[in-house]
Write a structure and sequence with these properties.
By secondary structure, the chain is an alpha/beta fold. The protein has helices at residues 2-15, 33-36, 48-56, 79-88, 100-108, and strands spanning 23-27, 40-43, 67-70, 95-98, 112-116, 125-128. Strands 2-5-1-6-3-4 form a six-stranded mixed β-sheet. It has five helices and six strands. Helix 3 (48-56) runs parallel beside helix 4.
Length: 137
Amino acid sequence: MRGRERAGELGEQRTSGPGHSDAVVIADAHFPAAALARRLVVLPGTTTPGVLAAIRTVIPLDDAPSLDLMTSADGEVLAVQRELMTAAGTDEVTTRFVDRFAYYDLAREAFLVVRTGETRKYGNALLRKGVVGHPST
């Protein structure tokens, strides 16, 4: 019975993580993460592009749009946003830009929010998890 109990524990751990199309937000230091997150990890001293690049080593992206970025105040694509697209392996065609308050609504539904020490404005990324082990990943 011990083996069965252990197998059940492992199954619970596997299914308790993010599933296909679940969102993970990598947020800058300005983001209201504590107010919006269901699950929050705080990584001071890190940048959003750096954390996104690390996450991408273990999480494949879903079909486009697999990355959402918050639209800047003037609609310009900022340097930090270009870095985020590079870290995610996307571009302006496969990235969706979302109004600030709509972005907050999406973040409320995210599986996880990771708050970084990023101080550049609009340094937030929401990625959708693809299927692990799928031939396209």
